[in-house]
Amino acid sequence: LAWRRREIGELPEMEAKRLAFRRHNALTPGQPPLLLCFPEGAWQEIFPENTLTCENPLARAFELQLRRDIYWHDVLRDDAPFEPQFEVGWRVDFGSYGVEAQSLKAAAFSPLLRI
After folding, report:
1. Cα-flanking dihedrals φ and ψ of residue 101, to 5°?
2. Segment 99-115 mean pLDDT
3. Could you give the CA distance from residue 110 to residue 14 in angstroms, rounded to a whole number?
4. Residue 74 CA, distance from chain mean position
5. pTM beyond cutoff 0.85
6. Rounded mean pLDDT of 100-112?
7. pLDDT (tens digit, 9 = 90+) per residue, 63-90?
8. Positive or negative CA dihedral for 77, 42, 39, 84?
9. Cβ distance 54 to 62 under 8 Å?
10. Is residue 4 within 8 Å of residue 17, measured between CB atoms?
11. Interior angle at CA 95, CA 91 and CA 96, nearest 5
12. What are 19-27's contacts with CB under 8 Å, separation 24+?
């Protein structure tokens, strides 16, 4: 999946799509509108859980994203450009660092309250 995703990102049409977005973002006049398709909410129908092969939760998340990207290019065919690399986000867990934070809730405001 990763190799296919890279192949898609290296296609000559992707550079043309990136250029179209740079022109769009620069507000260059006379450019055709760009079409983007976001099938949010339908991904579970396109790739049901039982179609994924990875067992590790992190690997499954990567597999799903790679399959989405490939489907996006092969089927949806909108103007979204793909980079040749697969972005792996970072995660930060915040701890107490030895100091427990205290939080206080303010009393509810009442418009009938007279001072």
Report:
1. -80, 140
2. 67
3. 58
4. 18
5. no
6. 69
7. 999 999 999 999 999 999 999 999 888 8
8. negative
9. yes
10. no
11. 160
12. 20/79, 20/81, 21/79, 21/81
Pairwise CA distance, residues 39 & 49, whole Å: 17
The DSSP string of the chain is -HHHHHHHHTSHHHHHHHHHHHHHHTT-TTPPPP-----TTTHHHHS-GGG----SHHHHHHHHHHHHHHHIIIII--S----SS-----------TT------PPPPP-TT---
Distance linking the first and last C-alpha atoms of the chain: 67
At 4, the pLDDT band (50, 70, 90 cuts) reads very high
Single-letter amino acid, residue 70? I
Residue type, 80: A
